[in-house]
């Protein structure tokens, strides 16, 4: 698919997908629900992780929740990161942004502070997006933040700020490059492809050599070439030779370590690691006019869905021209971060969870503990149908308040709850069970349930 048609597809599906909370179970169980059309789904059958992948991915899987930042010249332009192509802006005009680019001092420290307040446990920041501008010092092009307006190495500032805070460092790198004369031509001209591959390998080598330990390499824009053209296996070989502990995604067309469903939540199979990346409004790079912010609750429900299906969640913010986060982004992220302080045990280090959600709640699990995340608070009582495992106790997670309940074959009925929702934006109940909580999702259960007949009165 070429850039424009792929982009059109993303734009066409983006709004619907962005607002939908779509779990893997939702996809398989609710056939009538709108189907996600991910730009980067997991392969139909994923290769099972190797021992080395399991070793490198351990911290990453435990981290579960990351903050994605798209920052570049497009942040000054303020109409998303594809503007130079979508609006066919002449390069002579677009390049002037590089001279005006002026991130405020200490911007990376501010990003790390917000990431920490949001509860994120790793970060991924753009070193170069499709526009080709390098946010780092490089010997390979003058189109970089050291030679242009900022006169600063923004990647170095970010890496240092993150490391100082103990925050794992992810680098986003776009293979596709609209500024480089060989970028587009590489698909039709072998000499151009060779030059472009040398340039690409050179930039990646600099990024993975000059900044100490890098934890994640987040490839993107694997166009216009395929795996062979990018020499993707050789690329990863170089990456692992330079950074033996790094994890890489599969967007350079090699399989890499994890899949990256975009604006959708689709679990990979076969134990393959996956990470759903999503925007907090509808834009990756800053769009001054985009006010379609997700509510803190929708954002959190997406995180819960990823946790339930054992995936990671990477939430994106596009800072404004000088690197400041839009105010709504800070507010939403901080609200979710505050929630995680009291409820994080239900999100991090959880196990696969079989129970499915009713319309008002979702579930995660750790060992024999079932976490019921109630997003539409029903008032003084909450029910859970079909649980087949004996419940020993129920309490509110944040306050530890014990709750009264009864259980029969069809229902766990929790009573005596406050009429007003106790926690925002979601209230989590903890059900301690006798064994791993399982739910009967089959029709048989409803068949067996006693019914009253027509004309039968009590
Ligand atoms: C899409 C967009 C790109 C963005 C990426 C993040 O591929 O084209 O601009 O950086 O998603 O996943």
From TrEMBL:
Keywords: Glycosidase, Hydrolase, Signal. The keyword Ligase does not apply. Transmembrane segments: none annotated. SMART domains: Alpha_L_fucos. InterPro entries: FUC_metazoa-typ, GH, Glyco_hydro_29, Glyco_hydro_29_N, Glyco_hydro_b, TAT_signal. GO terms for molecular function: alpha-L-fucosidase activity. The record marks 277 as: May be important for catalysis. Pfam families: Alpha_L_fucos (PF01120). Residues 1-26 form the signal peptide. GO terms for biological process: fucose metabolic process; glycoside catabolic process. Belongs to the glycosyl hydrolase 29 family. Alpha-L-fucosidase is responsible for hydrolyzing the alpha-1,6-linked fucose joined to the reducing-end N-acetylglucosamine of the carbohydrate moieties of glycoproteins. This is alpha-L-fucosidase. It comes from Granulicella mallensis (strain ATCC BAA-1857 / DSM 23137 / MP5ACTX8).
């Amino acid at each position: 698919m070429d850039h424009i048609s792929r982009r059109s597809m993303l734009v066409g599906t983006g709004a619907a997908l962005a607002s939908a909370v779509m779990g893997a179970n939702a996809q398989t169980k609710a056939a009538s629900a709108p189907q996600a059309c991910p730009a980067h789904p997991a392969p139909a059958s994923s290769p099972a992780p190797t021992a080395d992948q399991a070793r490198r991915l351990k911290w990453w899987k435990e981290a579960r929740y990351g903050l994605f930042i798209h920052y570049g010249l497009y942040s000054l332009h303020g109409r998303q990161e594809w503007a130079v192509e979508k609006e066919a802006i002449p390069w002579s005009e677009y390049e002037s942004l590089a001279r005006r680019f002026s991130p405020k001092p200490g911007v990376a420290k501010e990003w790390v502070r917000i990431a920490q307040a949001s509860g994120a446990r790793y970060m991924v920041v753009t070193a170069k997006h499709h526009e080709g501008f390098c946010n780092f010092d490089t010997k390979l092009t003058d189109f970089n933040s050291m030679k242009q307006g900022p006169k600063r190495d923004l990647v170095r500032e970010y890496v240092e700020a993150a490391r100082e805070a103990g925050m794992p460092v992810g680098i986003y790198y776009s293979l596709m490059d609209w500024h480089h004369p060989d970028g587009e031509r590489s698909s039709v001209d072998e000499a151009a492809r060779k030059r472009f591959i040398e340039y690409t390998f050179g930039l990646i080598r600099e990024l993975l050599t000059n900044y100490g330990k890098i934890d994640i390499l987040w490839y993107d824009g694997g166009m216009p070439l395929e795996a062979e053209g990018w020499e993707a296996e050789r690329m990863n070989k170089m990456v692992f030779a330079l950074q033996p502990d790094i994890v890489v995604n599969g967007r350079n067309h090699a399989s890499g370590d994890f899949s990256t469903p975009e604006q959708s939540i689709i679990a990979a199979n076969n134990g393959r690691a996956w990470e759903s990346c999503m925007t907090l409004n509808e834009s990756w790079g800053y769009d001054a006019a985009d006010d379609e912010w997700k509510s803190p609750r929708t954002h959190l429900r997406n995180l819960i869905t990823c946790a339930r299906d054992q995936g990671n969640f990477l939430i994106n913010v596009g800072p404004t021209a000088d690197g400041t986060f839009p105010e709504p982004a800070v507010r939403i992220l901080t609200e979710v971060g505050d929630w995680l302080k009291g409820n994080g045990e239900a999100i991090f280090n959880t196990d696969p969870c079989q129970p499915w959600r009713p319309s008002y709640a979702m579930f995660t699990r750790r060992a024999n503990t079932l976490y019921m995340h109630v997003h539409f608070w029903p008032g003084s009582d909450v029910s859970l149908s079909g649980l087949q495992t004996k419940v020993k106790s129920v309490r509110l997670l944040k306050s530890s308040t014990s709750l009264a309940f009864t259980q029969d074959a069809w229902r766990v009925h929790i009573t005596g709850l406050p009429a007003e929702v106790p926690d925002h934006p979601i209230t989590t109940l903890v059900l301690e069970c006798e064994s791993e909580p399982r739910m009967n999702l089959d029709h048989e259960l409803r068949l067996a349930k006693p019914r009253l007949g027509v004309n039968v009165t009590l």
